[in-house]
Amino acid sequence: MRRSWIPLLLLLAVFLAFVGTAVGAAQSLDDLVRRDAQRSSALRTQTDLQRLLTLLVDIETGVRGFIITGQRPFLQPYEAARHDLDQTYGDVRKRLVEVGTSEAQLQRLDGFLEERLAQVESNIARREREGPVVMRDLASYADGKRLMDQLRYEIEELQRVQQWRIAEADQATRAVQQHTLELTRLLPGVGLLALVLALVALTREQRRRDRAETALREANANLERLVGERTSALSRALGRIQGFAVELDRGVEEERRRLAREVHDQIGQVGTAMKMLVVALRNKLKPKVEPLVDELQGMADETIRVARHIAAALRPPLLDELGLEAATEHYLQQLGRQSGLATRLGLPDAGLLTPEQASQLFRIIQEACTNVLRHAQARTLTIEGEPVEVDGREGFRLDIIDDGRGPGDTRADASGLRNMRERAALADGSFEFGPAPGRGTRVRVWLPLAGQHDNNDHNDNRKAAPAPASP
């Protein structure tokens, strides 16, 4: 009688072990499916957020091209992105609500997006109504940049949340897998039959897991392909934006040159004519002395001086006429007279630079010298440049070194450093800021040099370019 119960008990134990294993496997599979759905949802949300950011960049690119050129074809990227934006944002917002994103964060994103779109439409209308004068509205540009930075920050925050959900799903999946593995190890204890049944169950579970992993790998491959395509599109968009930035900077310099010429031709000539009239008036009144005549001559001299100062500040004539070294030497002479700072200059090979590179380096020198006067408490300033080879590329290296108190706790994103870094990037170069050997601060800029033939062309163009002469 006892023997008859042993097989039954073993069968019951095997059955219970099988049932327990089957239940655990089913629960694990359900959990895996649920976590995989969570991960897929987070990946889709990340993709849609990236799509939203791409559309915003396309809108920014199209509007900027239209504002610069005033031609309607440049609005095609804007119109295409604007057409897809509402549907994309609606899908993104729906998914964000489903995953429990806070209402405050969604309202911030809504507000920034509505405000930016309204500002873009206003800029288009102003460009059509007011013409190229809109490009000089720096406040509108700064406000648009601020809104885009806020939108990027909000979207990146939402993407980080989705990445956290993906990591959480992966961790939970690993925990479920570990639990399933521990459960399957209990089967050998109930006998040979339980071991066989456990191996069968484990084989089935392994096959299911392999299918799930294969599907997951395929999904990951598709996602990586999509991310690669988006990254390539973003890289192309970044290249176009950098091109627009170069053109914009070139336009600013041309406008500075034109304004300097206008100041010289108008205000300078008016001052000169006024001075000639005063001299004639004094000769006519001789020997009588009239104080008002002296005052008028002083005003004429001040007008000529102010015109010369404004023209030089807008675009130093020496930069176009004699090149970077002469313009920098003149600037340092004025700087030394005003501040008492001892300066040294060595730019014997600056003629290898193109006119645009020389212009960018001169602006960087002005910004660096301003920072030295404001913060460095230095007594001497040295500016040196020479051709050097970096990573197999021929280039021109410029060092600006002072003997002041050093960089200290200067922020890397400070306005002056950011301006110099951006100007170096516009010229396809690099920028470094740090302590100088010994003491003080060193600013180092490296710009690539073009071929000798291109250099000659650039030099000829520089000599032929019109530039304002001193009044």
Could you walk me through the main structural features you see in this protein, from its secondary elements to its overall organization?
The chain is of the alpha+beta class and 471 residues long. The protein is built from 11 helices and 5 strands. The chain has a 5-stranded mixed β-sheet, with helices on one face. The longest helix is centred in the middle third of the chain and has 94 residues, at 192-285. The protein folds into 2 domains: 2-254, no CATH class; 317-464, Histidine kinase-like ATPase, C-terminal domain (Heat Shock Protein 90, 2-Layer Sandwich). The protein has helices at residues 2-69, 76-98, 103-130, 138-184, 192-285, 291-314, 317-321, 324-339, 355-376, 415-426, 452-464; strands at 342-346, 380-390, 393-402, 430-435, 441-448.
Tally the helices: what do you get?
A: 11
Structural class by sheet pairing and helices: alpha+beta
Strand order of the largest sheet: 1-2-3-5-4
Distance linking N and C termini: 125 Å
Q: Please report the total strand number as a whole number.
A: 5
Biggest pleated-sheet summary: 5 strands, mixed
Q: Using the alpha-carbon principal axes, give the shape.
A: elongated
Q: For the residues shown, what is the average pLDDT?
A: 76
Radius of gyration: 35 Å
Q: SSE order, as H and E? A: HHHHHHHHEHEEHEEH
Helix content: over 70%
Poorly predicted runs are 452-471
Instruction: Tell me the fraction of residues in β-strands, as a range.
Output: 5-15%
The number of distinct structural domains comes to: 2
Keywords:
five-stranded mixed sheet, Heat Shock Protein 90
